[in-house]
Write a structure and sequence with these properties.
- The chain is α/β, with parallel strands linked by helices.
- It folds into 2 domains: 2-190, no CATH class; 191-235.
- Helices cover 39% and strands 23% of the residues.
- The protein contains 7 helices and 8 strands.
- Strands 1, 2, 3, 4, 5 and 6 form a 6-stranded mixed beta sheet that branches. A two-stranded antiparallel sheet has the order 7-8.
- β5 (162-165), α6 and β6 form a beta-alpha-beta unit.
- α5 packs parallel to α6 (172-181).
- The protein starts with a helix and ends with a helix.
- Residues 224-235 have low confidence and may be disordered.
Length: 235
């Protein structure tokens, strides 16, 4: 932005910035995580109450590249917002929040794990570099790439106790993986008869657990109404 606006012009050219951003040796996930961790711990957490719960938030969004033709690992990705396929990537983002402030921690552009959906393949790079590992991570499923982002945040000591995500990530394998890293999970569970949960020492589906509790809630409501009815009639 300094180069574009002409203010506070640095002592290097625009090509230097582009070459720097293309360096395979730089671990951008770790860099952005360490930067966010320092900002959170030094500038935000000291202003918060000790009772405030800090959380990490996982979500994905569509990153369109419809006019691109030669971008590495460009793929046909499904846009859940518009319910159609587009050329681009799914941008999986890990953010941090204390309930008032939000700060992005790290992210990864996800291509498709299905080779048939990929328009271009990755260029051959040194397998020892961070760039090669980043390319391997981008062709994995979102549920497999998410723990890697969380492990980096855990290693950087980002202060958080819970991980929040939607039902798309709420599979048993993902819940176990997040718990193993050291976080508790808050999220909406998928409504499917194929997944079972241990509830009152029984393995039940989500629908069964909901039905049992809905009957219980109705009985409690009826008891409360029966106790309040004399007061209402008297009034």
């Amino acid at each position: 932005m300094s180069l574009i606006t002409g203010r506070n012009t640095p002592g290097f050219a625009k090509d230097t910035v582009y070459r720097f951003m293309k360096m395979l040796q730089i671990n951008w996930i770790r860099f952005t995580t360490l930067l966010a961790s320092r900002i959170i711990r030094d500038a935000i957490v000291p202003l918060d109450s000790e009772d405030r719960a800090n959380v990490l938030i996982i979500d994905d969004s569509m990153f369109e590249r419809n006019r691109s033709k030669k971008v590495e690992l460009l793929a046909k990705a499904y846009d859940h917002a518009n319910h159609r396929y587009r050329f681009g990537f799914r941008m999986l983002t890990l953010g941090w929040s204390d309930g008032s402030s939000f700060l992005p921690v790290n992210s990864i552009l996800l291509s498709s794990e299905n080779k048939k959906n990929r328009v271009n393949e990755a260029v051959k790079v040194d397998k020892r570099t961070a760039g090669y590992k980043r390319r391997l991570l981008s062709i994995q499923k979102g549920t497999q790439a998410m723990p890697e982002l969380l492990k980096t945040a855990k290693k950087a000591a980002v202060p958080a106790k819970y991980v929040l995500f939607d039902s798309w990530f709420s599979s048993p394998s993902t819940l176990h993986a997040v718990k193993t890293i050291g976080y508790d999970v808050i999220g909406m569970v998928k409504k499917t008869p194929k997944m079972f949960f241990r509830y009152k020492e029984e393995d039940m589906s989500l629908i069964t657990i909901y039905n049992r509790n809905s009957v219980l809630n109705k009985s409690i409501l009826l008891c409360l109404l029966s106790k309040l009815s004399p007061i209402i009639v008297h009034a």
